[in-house]
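Entry 14. Structure prediction run on the chain below.
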Amino acid sequence: MEISSLSLSQAVAAEFAPETTYLNSASCGLLPRRTVEAVKALADGTAAGVRGGAGSFEAVEAARAGFARLVGVGPDRVATGSSVAVHAGLIAASLPPGAEILAPEGEFSSVVSPFALRGDLRMRYVPLADLAESVRPGTALVAFSAVQSADGRVADLDAVRTAAAAHGARTLVDASQAAGWFPLDAGAYDYTVTGGFKFLLCPRGASFLTVTEEAQSALPPVFAGWVAAEDPWNSTYGPVERLAATARRFDEPPAFLAYHGAEHSLALLAQVGADALYAHSTGLAARFREGLADIGHRAVPGESAIVAVPGLGGREPDLAAAGVMVSARAGNLRAAFHLYNTEADVTRALDVLG
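Output returned:
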C-alpha cells in the first residue's frame, strides 16, 4: 500500500484543533479528525442497523499493516489486541516456573504485573541505567519500556539487546511511550507490546504485539478464539482446529470502534514520516527543558519527547486551571510533545510555571 506524504504543518492544520495547550500525549493522544469521523460512521451505522455486525475486519488488517510499517516489521509478525497487560500476560504464560525476569525499577505496572503476580517466577529489578550489565546466565526475559512512563528516560536499547543475546535471554519491549515519535525497530526484539492510545493517536482499545518467528513457537494460544483461526469464518463453532500460521494466532477479538479509528491514525503518522515526528517532538522538548532551567527547574536530562521535572508534580492542577494539560507521575511533572504541539505551547507552559 502506497502512502502519500504530508507535511507536519499540513497534517496539523487538517486534523487537529485543540482547545487547550495539550502536552499530555504520554497519557492519551489527541484523535485526528479523520479518526473521529471513522469511529462516528461505524457507531452511527451500527445504531441504525444498516450494516451486518459491528465493524470490519478490513479495518483491523489495515491497522495491523499500518503499525507494522511504523515499527519496521511485516504484518505477519503483528497480533492485535486491546491492552498491553493482556499481551504481557500471554508472554508470562509461556515461561516455566522459576524463570527469572529482569526489569527496571519503577517499570510500568502493565509490563511487570503479569509476571510478578504469577507467583512462581523470579522477579529482579535494577536501575534502568544498569539494565544491560545486569543480564546474567539464567535470565529468561528482560522486560522493559523503550521510554519510561514516569520520567521519559530512553533505555539503552542496543546495549540491552546485545546483553540479552549474549546470555540467551529473550527481550520484551513496551513501546507505548515510544511508537509514534521514536524510531523503533521492533524486529530487533523477541516481543514488543504497544498501547495505541498515546503517541499512536488511536482510540483506546487498540494495542499491538510483535513476535519474532522463533518466539512465536514458545507462546501458548491461551486467549485463542475464532478470530485467531487460519479460517476464521469456518471456525465459529466448536474448538478451533487450526490456528493462523502468522502472529494473527495471538489476536484478541477486535474492539471495532477502536480499530476503525486506528487505521486512520496510523496512516496519518505514516504520511508525516518518522523522521519528521522525531525531530519535531524532541526539538520542542529540548526547548522546554532549556526554558525550565532558565526559571530554576531542572528536568530529567535526555533526548526524549517526554519531559519530567522531579518534585514539581504538585503544579499540575495550576497548569490545568490555566488550560495547560500535563500530568503528574511519581512526583514528577510530566509534559509530552507530539506533532500537534508548537513553540507557542512551550512558551505558554513556561509562562504558567514561571
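The radius of gyration is 21 Å.
Filed with the rest of this week's runs.
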